[in-house]
Structure formats: C-alpha cells, structure tokens
Amino acid sequence: MSTSSVTGDLDAWRALPALQQPDWDDPAEVRAVTAELAAQPPLVFAGECELLKGRLAEVTRGEAFVLQGGDCAETFAGSTADAVRNKLKTLLQMAVVLTYAASVPVVKIGRMAGQFAKPRSKPVETRGGVELPAYRGDAVNGFDFTEESRRNDPQRLLKAYHCSAVTLNLCRAFTKGGYADLRQVHAWNQDFVAQSPAGRRYEQVAGEIDRALTFMKACGANPDEFHGVEFYSSHEALLLEYERALTRIDSLSGRPYDVSAHFLWLGERTRQLDGAHVEFLRHIRNPIGVKLGPTTSADDALALIERLNPEGEPGRLTFITRMGAGKIRDALPPLIEKVHRSGAPIAWVCDPMHGNTFEAPSGHKTRRLDAVLDEVAGFFEVHRALGTHPGGIHIEFTGDDVTECVGGGRPIVEDDLHQRYETACDPRLNRGQSLDLAFMVAELYRETR
Ligand code: PEP
Ligand code: CO
C-alpha cells in the first residue's frame, strides 16, 4: 500500500459521525494546534507497540494477565512527580501480588500519560440553577464550574501532549532506572505497611519474594534480570483530531501508529460500527481495545472483530467488558461463547468499575469495593464455566489515600467520602483498596487454574 493511500485511510473518519467531540470556537486555531502537534516527537515507538501486541497475544493464549489502570481522568495539576510515582508504585505492588500469588506474568499498562479527555452522558452540567458546558477533561476545558473555565480551549491539546510526555518520561525512568527493581519490593511499601491490613499482607508477600530471589541468586541466576519492568501507556482514543495529529507512518514497516500511547481503547459511548472512532482505530496498527457494556450483543462483538481485526492478528484486539456486578453473569457468557466459537483471538479484560457507579446521599459519585470485587468474581466464574481465559482487569485507582470508593480492609463509609474526594471524574480505588483487589484477583486466578 502506498503512503498516500495509508494517509488517506487515516482521514476517512472525517466523513463519518464523530460523537463526543468538543465544539471548538475557532477552527483555524484547532488547525494551528494540530499542525504543531503533528510536528512534535512521538511519545511511543512502533516497536514498543508491537512488543505490547506480542504480550497481549500471550494473554489471548492464556499465558499472561493484564493489569491496566490509573485515573478516570488525569489532570494537568496532577501530573506531578509525587502523584505519578504513587500511582506507579501502587501498580507495581498490585503486579507483584498478582505475579507472585497467581504465578502469572502480568502485562502492566497505565491508564496514564494521556488520559485527559472524557466522554460525557450530558453535554451540560447544572448546579444551583446555573447551566454550563460539561467538563470534558483537561485536554478540552477546565474542571472549575465557571464560564471561563468551561470554555473549550484548543491550546489545552498541546498541554495534554506535554503533560503526557513528562508523565511517560517519569514512568520510563521509574520502571527502567532501578526503582522498579524487584529487589525493592519492600521499599515500595515503606510508607504504607504499618497503617493497613493490605500493607501488612503485602509485606508478607514481599518477604517471600526476597527469599525466592536469594534462593535464585544462590542457584546462580543473575539478579540484574529483575532490574526493570515493561510498562506501557494507554488512554481512551476520544479526541480524534488529537489522535490523528499524533499518528505517524513507521519508517521501518511503512505502517501507521498512533504514537500518543502504546494502547488505545474506544469507550462504550463511541464504539458505533459506522462511526468515526471505529473507522480511525481500524487503520492504526497499535494494539487496541473496545469497552463493551451490558447491552452489547454477541453479533455486535463479532462485527467489531470483523471491522477492527479482520485478519485475526493475536494481541491486536482486547475487549474490556464493563457489565455491572448484577449483570455480568448473564451478559458475558453469550459474548464469550460466540466469539470463542468464531476462533477470533481476543484478550478478555474486566473493567469492574464503570457498571457499578452510584450516587451516595451526600451527592458524591461512588462505587462499593464489594460490587467491584463481585464483578471480578463473576468474570472469573464465567470464564471458568466456559473454559476460557480471564485475561485481566482494567481499573480506576490512584496511589493516594483518597476517599472516593466505599469499603475495603480499612473501610471507608459513605460519611467519609467528603474527607478526600479529589477525582476530576469517576471515583477511584485508593492504594489499600487496590491492593485488596489485587489479593482477591490473585486468589481467584489460582483457583481457576
Ligand atoms: C472510562 O473508562 O472512564 C469510561 C468513560 O468508560 P466507559 O466508556 O466504559 O463508560
Ligand atoms: Co471512568
């Protein structure tokens, strides 16, 4: 295929309906911003995307497990060294628990370094009789409830790129520069261990890992092999102008990659078969995902496979199901059965967050850890019954001690929610709740094997 037809394909989405795109006031400013983005260096490389595709192919074969997570909405103000380190640390701790307790390789993907745009169920928000445009993520407008802040500003796309770059740079440094060394398992827990049941439980696992490492060293293994970890970035591919501007033709393969992140997914609200988002994702070669809610039919899933991975490339397509704890046991089996019968290689990942959101009496949007755990348990039950592979989890969490979801080993109740409710969008698990979840997933995984 010639380069010009490749780039033509990359713009085919422009002729189709694109949901959830911001109305920008000044098209000329958007053109100037996207031209500037198109001249920026890539954040990720095609070879890295292919490496991740290979890891996800292992997931489709039942040989590895995905741990994908981070904020619902990253913010510019939250792109600090401390916040990024805490998130990464929590992800590494969860991954260690899963790798050790479930004895499975864990593919670590941050919902990080680019998760700056949000789809909204309503285009406006009303507070005290005042109606303003909804917050669409820091890449589009501001969280503050004022007219000025809620104005869509294309310059924010550039800031989203730069915040993604600094975040990813820090993640790369932490994961390759010694911080993620398995011999540091205790160090990640230092500020945490005494305070919580999850921290104490983690400390036990870390002690066992220490002994295993000493044993391996004594046997002649090279401990430097544990120096770094593979870490990948991901976000929802929502703002098509941004994603298009960051799509490049790889000089080695001649194929297009969206270099804004290793992995891109389509949300439940923008996965229409004939819509612009599916059309755009069809043409990039990154590994991609699609969120599937409880109304998805098996034929919808097959049609998405036909559109997004017609050649059946293993690792190319991940389905991230978000059914709700009360629905997963009924809604998931028909999808898996039919897809499995078709022979299509799919990584099945469970998002136990987005089907379990409710409003507490205080008005806070929240989730119960019990419901999250129950959806994950349902996910494992369904896969066990069908003999298929529960391929991973996709969660919203933060490394900070927030009070946004209720429950956990050191329980948060509805009356606590106001104490540290800091999310810019959906409620996130805090560090203790995330570790509670990791321990439970590890147990379920072990039982399934
Ligand atoms: C999200 O992941 O934050 C989100 C909006 O999810 P979904 O598309 O599944 O509703
Ligand atoms: Co969310």
UniProtKB/TrEMBL annotation:
Keyword Transferase annotated: yes
Pathway of action: Metabolic intermediate biosynthesis; chorismate biosynthesis; chorismate from D-erythrose 4-phosphate and phosphoenolpyruvate: step 1/7
One Pfam family cited in the UniProt record for this chain: DAHP_synth_2
GO molecular function: 3-deoxy-7-phosphoheptulonate synthase activity
Catalytic activity: D-erythrose 4-phosphate + phosphoenolpyruvate + H2O = 7-phospho-2-dehydro-3-deoxy-D-arabino-heptonate + phosphate
Documented EC number(s): 2.5.1.54
Source organism superkingdom: Bacteria
Keywords: Amino-acid biosynthesis, Aromatic amino acid biosynthesis, Transferase
UniProt cross-references to InterPro entries, sorted A to Z: Aldolase_TIM, DAHP_synth_2
Family from the record: Belongs to the class-II DAHP synthase family.
Name by which UniProt lists this protein: Phospho-2-dehydro-3-deoxyheptonate aldolase
Protein species of origin: Actinomadura yumaensis
